[in-house]
Every structure is written in C-alpha cells, then in structure tokens.
C-alpha cells in the first residue's frame, strides 16, 4: 500500500504531503523493521521509540510516524499521538479484519482466561474454526503462538486478526485487560459480544482507584457498536451478581443479557450442588431448565460457565449443545489444576493472584477439606502493592498452614514484598520462605494423609522472574518433584 493512501485513514485536517513510498509492513520495534516498513515511534514506559528511528531507517524503513520532526533521510509523518494513530493505521493496513470475523471480548478481574477457553471449546465443538487471544497464548485453530501480554498492543492485535481471517477463523475470543482498554490497544476492534466476569481489587498500581479501574472496564461496553444493524447485532453479557454491571449496562446501547446465581438473571443457576470432584446446577433460561454436570470445582466456576453459556447462546449455539461441550471440560491449565503423583493428600496449583481469587479458591477448598490446608503464596513485584497485606490476611483466614514466598519479584527486593504481606497479619501464625521451590518442598514434606496443599499465584506460568533474570520454574513440576522426593 502507498504511504499517502494509508495515511488517508487518519483523516488529517490538512492532508499530509510529500513523498509516497510503498509501505510493505508496519512496525513499532526497530528490530523488526525490514525494507519498506513504516516505523511508528512510541513513547513507552521504559524507552522512547523516537530514539530508534535512525536505526529503523538503517534497517530499511521507508517512512517514519513520529510525534515530532526527526532528522532522518525518509519521510517523517508527524501526528499528535502515535499510539492512537497506530491503532487506526493497523486496522486499515490489515484490511479491517475484525469486521470479517465474529469477535467476542471478555473483561473482568478474574475468570477471563477460564471463560475464554470454555467458550472456545463450545464453538470448536460446533465445527467452527476459532481464534483465541489471552494470558496463556494466542491460538489460531490448533496452532499456538507465544504472547507477552494478556491483550497485545493494537499493531500485534490487528496483525493477528488478519492472520486469523487468512486462515479462515470464524470466531475469535479474546481477553480484554483493563490496561488494554485504557491504553487504547483495542481501538478499532469491532466486537460483536462483550462479556463481563467480575470486578474486584487488582491493578491499583496502574488505575489508582477502583472507580478508575471500573471506568477502564466500562470502555469495552461503551465501545460496543452503537447502531442496531439487523445483520450484526451486538450483545453485552453482564454478571447480575456484580454491582459494576449496572454501570456497564448504562454504558452500552447493545442488547444486554445477564447471568447469575443470587440475583434474577436471564441465565440463572439454581439448585447448586458442589462436591470435591465436580459441580452441578439447574440452568434456568426463559421457561426452560437444563441440568448441568460440571467437572469444574467451586462456585466461581459456575460464574465462568454461565458467562460462556450466555456468550454461546447469543452466538446462536443451541443451549443443549453448549452444555454438552462444557460438561466435557476437565479444567484449564493452571486453574485449580491437581498434581497427582500417587500421594495421599491433595495438591492444587492455581493462578489466584488477587485477594478475591485467593479467597474464592481457599473457600472452595475449605468447603471440602477436613484436615490441614497449606497455602504457598506470594505477590508479584512491580504490581499493585496494596493487595499484598490483603492476600496475606486471606491466606491466614482460610488456611491452617500459610507459607508466604516469592511470586515474580521482578525488580523488587523479594524480602521487601514479603514484609508488605506480613504487615497485614501481625500476630498470626505463618511462615516465610523466600525461595519458592523451598516453600513448595516444605509444604509437601509436612503434608499428611487427607491434607490439601494449594500453590497459588503462578498457575500455568513456566518461569519465575527475579530481577531481570527469567528462570525456568513451573509450580506443577516442582510440586511433582517434591512429592516424588518424599
Ligand atoms: C506497562 C505496560 O503496559 N508496558 C507495556 C509497554 O511496554 P513499555 O511501555 O515499557 O515499552 P518500551 O519498552 O518502553 O518500548 C517503547 C517503544 O519502543 C520500541 N522499542 C523498544 C526497544 C528497542 O530496542 N527498540 C524499539 O523499537 C518498542 O517496540 C515500543 O514501541 O508495551 C509493551 C509492548 O506492547 C508491552 O509488552 C508492555 O507490557 C508489559 C510487559 C507489562 O507487564 N504490562 C502489564 C502491566 C499489562 O499490560 N498487563 C495487562 C493485564 C494483565 C492481566 O490482568 O491479565 C495485559 O494485558 O497484559
Ligand atoms: N469467576 C471467578 N471469580 C473469582 N475468581 C475466579 C473466577 N474464575 C477464576 N478465578 C480465580 O482466578 C484465577 C485466575 O483465573 P483466570 O486465569 O481465568 O482469570 P483472568 O481474568 O484471566 O486473570 P488474568 O487477569 O491474570 O489474566 C483462577 O486461578 C481462580 O483462582
Ligand atoms: N496478569 C497478571 C499476572 C499476575 C501473575 C502473578 N504471577 C504475578 O507475576 O504477579 C498481572 O499482570 O498482574
Ligand atoms: Mg487471563
């Protein structure tokens, strides 16, 4: 595509003039630039992309998009906000891919990864080719691609959607993080369905207040189409039991459907039965009622299932087929994942890294446990510090044997993070073991028949970041090794 043609999508008040090279790709990382690329300079949290413009030109950039004039030998297009412009350009360059597939976005503090996997399974079972974008990976059909963020920035995102369209994906399901909504990573995404799981404390390092965090989440609903196009209706799926849903309902013109347990909802779970091996309930939808027998555990799993079923129903999947698909799901990696190596106690690895998720998982365990409950838990560095004392309190409230350890300390001093956890539980009974491997081994060594060991916070992660070094680390493998050593 010619540069001038591409720039038209920015609708400048005064047209950009100048040379008109052929643009073969768009990049925001100078290391990925090739002959003919348009290099977009983004001011990041760590470095300023403008500093890499000369290097991008050396690597073959045919033009540069920047927020100020630059002394380089290729055309420089100056805009006020390159991050905003990147979303528009990416959407145009890749042929507006989200208008060519069905796009379902899932937001909320907890349950996004789980719900997206449940929904993907329902759609794939119907014979649809699906795409998935989220915390664990991006998936196109059966192919998985490694990712860094839960929701990538706009350029990667639109490139991925383009690839999905090329490969025949009919529906893409994606996790939409509050960071992504706030930073405009999803500008240009034309969602058909927006799903809300729940809102509890996380990410206050970034959003500062819960009100701001909620406002960021609400963008998914306010940005959901504002027209009643007959052929492409838009739906907002809201959690009737979460107070934030009222604001999201007000934010959207889309058709609203609700799900829930406590409050009246369009899809409602009643007659719930929970055991240590599964959960069952009656799904009431309109005048109809269906029994649902899940292999998933805990009340929070019912919410994720209801969210996925609601999104499936508005996507024209017959409800009984959606239920059959969900009943076959054994779980999602790193979410309430059992580690079995022949031991006579239960070991669970779970991605709970917020106060609410930790409380939910521990309450679920407490419901079934009749012996000791160990929890090995830490808090990530360079992330919301205010959750540290709260998570420690929850660990002490619901577990008989709390062990505080490191999660991903990142640039922080591991013991300083642990001190902030301890500040919440003065006088309580707990132990601190900075080294995560040692902490897991200690819990497993001490566990006796019938006890439960919960290893929380890192779930599917296969690394531990300490300082700038990323070490291989997988809670599931470490737990297995510890069990085998007994
Ligand atoms: C705070 C934040 O969101 N940071 C994101 C941001 O990084 P940054 O601002 O530090 O980027 P930077 O390194 O300064 O680079 C600026 C520009 O220079 C370019 N550059 C940089 C270096 C170089 O040699 N050459 C070059 O051209 C970069 O490509 C970029 O365009 O842009 C990066 C690229 O898009 C993101 O990967 C990165 O996410 C980091 C890893 C992160 O941890 N983000 C978290 C807070 C986050 O976004 N989390 C949410 C929610 C998770 C959840 O709850 O599920 C998520 O969606 O992941
Ligand atoms: N609906 C829910 N409500 C509360 N807690 C939940 C819910 N679903 C899952 N959890 C807990 O939260 C943890 C993370 O779940 P999941 O990965 O599905 O959430 P997520 O929203 O994708 O998280 P992230 O923001 O880190 O990507 C699970 O391991 C479990 O402990
Ligand atoms: N998506 C979450 C991941 C947290 C996982 C936890 N293991 C940590 O490193 O803090 C976040 O960015 O807050
Ligand atoms: Mg996730």
TrEMBL record:
Q: What is this protein called?
A: UDP-N-acetylmuramoyl-L-alanyl-D-glutamate--2,6-diaminopimelate ligase
- Catalytic reaction(s) noted: UDP-N-acetyl-alpha-D-muramoyl-L-alanyl-D-glutamate + meso-2,6-diaminopimelate + ATP = UDP-N-acetyl-alpha-D-muramoyl-L-alanyl-gamma-D-glutamyl-meso-2,6-diaminopimelate + ADP + phosphate + H(+)
Task: Give the UniProt family note.
Answer: Belongs to the MurCDEF family. MurE subfamily.
Pathway the protein acts in: Cell wall biogenesis; peptidoglycan biosynthesis
* Residues covered by the Mur ligase C-terminal domain: 334-459
Instruction: Outline what the protein does.
Output: Catalyzes the addition of meso-diaminopimelic acid to the nucleotide precursor UDP-N-acetylmuramoyl-L-alanyl-D-glutamate (UMAG) in the biosynthesis of bacterial cell-wall peptidoglycan.
Which compartments does it reside in? Cytoplasm
Q: Which cofactor does it need?
A: Mg(2+)
N6-carboxylysine-modified residues are where?
217
Q: Posttranslational modification, per the record?
A: Carboxylation is probably crucial for Mg(2+) binding and, consequently, for the gamma-phosphate positioning of ATP.
Q: What is its EC number?
A: 6.3.2.13
GO biological process terms, semicolon-separated: cell division; cell wall organization; peptidoglycan biosynthetic process; regulation of cell shape
Q: Taking the first listed entry, what is the main subcellular location of this protein, grouped into a coarse class?
A: cytoplasm
List the InterPro entries: Folylpolyglutamate_synth_CS (IPR018109), Mur-like_cat_sf (IPR036565), Mur_ligase_C (IPR004101), Mur_ligase_C_dom_sf (IPR036615), Mur_ligase_cen (IPR013221), Mur_ligase_N (IPR000713), MurE/MurF_N (IPR035911), UDP-N-AcMur-Glu-dNH2Pim_ligase (IPR005761)
GO MF terms, alphabetically ordered: ATP binding; magnesium ion binding; tetrahydrofolylpolyglutamate synthase activity; UDP-N-acetylmuramoylalanyl-D-glutamate-2,6-diaminopimelate ligase activity
Residues annotated as binding UDP-N-acetyl-alpha-D-muramoyl-L-alanyl-D-glutamate are 149-151, 177, 185
Q: Which UniProt keywords apply?
A: ATP-binding, Cell cycle, Cell division, Cell shape, Cell wall biogenesis/degradation, Cytoplasm, Ligase, Magnesium, Nucleotide-binding, Peptidoglycan synthesis
Domain Mur ligase central intervals? 106-312
Can you list the GO cellular component terms from the UniProt entry? cytoplasm
**Can you tell me which residues bind meso-2,6-diaminopimelate?**
383, 407-410, 457, 461
Query: Which Pfam family is one of those matched by this entry?
Result: Mur_ligase
